[in-house]
Amino acid sequence: MTQYQHIRFSLSLSYDQYLKVYQGIAKNVSVVADDGRRIAFPAGNIQSFLTKQGINGYFEMELTPENKFVSIKKLR
Asked: What is the CATH number of domain 5-74?
């Protein structure tokens, strides 16, 4: 049975900060997870959460045992 990893983190990006992705300046987002690990992931993984105010909230990312992205959801 495969055990997926669940990584929780807070994220606060302004709309202008995320705009750098569209401009080709940035490709990844780097955050410190609740457990202290620094994780980096493609900015496109959180694009669906973008509003006019940016991306703000508490998220949970699911990864395979090989650290492959499965999903991300906003918890609050």
From this structure: 2.40.50
Instruction: Summarize pLDDT for 40-55 with one digit per residue, the tens.
Output: 999 989 999 999 999 9
Query: Which tokens sit at 43?
Result: 């900015």
Distances in whole angstroms, Cα of residue 74 to Cα of each of 8, 25, 48: 10, 25, 10
Q: What is the largest CA-CA distance in the chain?
A: 42
**Would you say 73 and 67 are in contact if contact means Cβ atoms under 8 Å apart?**
no
> Domain segments of the chain: what residues?
5-74
pLDDT value, residue 54: 92
Please state the rounded mean pLDDT for residues 28-40: 94
Distance CA 29, CA 39 (A): 8
Report CA torsion sign: 70, 24, 74, 38. Answer: positive
Tokens of 71: 């999903």
